[in-house]
Design brief:
alpha/beta; 6 helices; 6 strands; 37% helix; disordered N terminus
């Protein structure tokens, strides 16, 4: 009888410990102007997730972001599908995450190429990737299609465009 009680107690302790250990989630984002950063912080809070900013080694200036100038840094990068802007630092503990939200502003109807740098620098196979984006006029559909095409072995969900989202919209997205 004591042995049975001991086994039951061990099972309850183990179950309780695993119930307390929830899946680790990361919200990684690139934000050139702060708009995407604001949304990423809201998602991180709603999902109780870690937050990581994808920061370029060389920060983008206003001139770099001038999409009307064909010689601007962002224009040159986005016109070269193989461009991979260098990140300032890499995340060291990617293995602990099961779900990774990746946020970005939409540039030229796709994710900025520094998002590709982030994806390629980290082992995301076997993880659930949930894109979110901000945009002045584009939908997220082409960005997701491009990411899926570029990374066919990754599990990339449909994602969502989140321009000035309400708290309930963020909460529903996270669910």
């Amino acid at each position: 009888m004591n042995r049975i009680l001991s086994i039951i107690c061990t099972m309850l302790i183990t179950f309780g410990a695993s119930a307390q250990q929830k899946s680790k989630t990361l919200v990684a984002y690139f934000s050139a102007s702060g708009v995407t950063a604001s949304v990423a912080k809201q998602i991180s809070e709603a999902a109780k997730a870690d937050l990581y900013e994808i920061t370029p080694k060389v920060k983008y200036s206003s001139a770099d972001l001038n999409w009307r100038d064909r010689q601007s840094r962002s224009s040159v990068e986005m016109n070269n599908k193989n461009s991979r802007p260098e990140m300032a630092e890499n995340i060291d503990n990617m293995a602990q995450y099961e779900t990774v939200y990746i946020g970005f502003p939409i540039w030229w109807n796709v994710a900025p190429h520094i998002v590709n740098t982030f994806i390629e620098a980290n082992k995301l196979e076997g993880k659930t990737i949930i894109p979110f984006a901000t945009s002045g006029g584009s939908s997220i559909k082409n960005s997701v299609k491009d990411l899926r095409s570029t990374y066919p072995t990754l599990t990339i969900k449909d994602g969502k465009l989140l321009n000035s989202p309400s708290k309930s919209e963020i909460e529903n997205f996270v669910k």
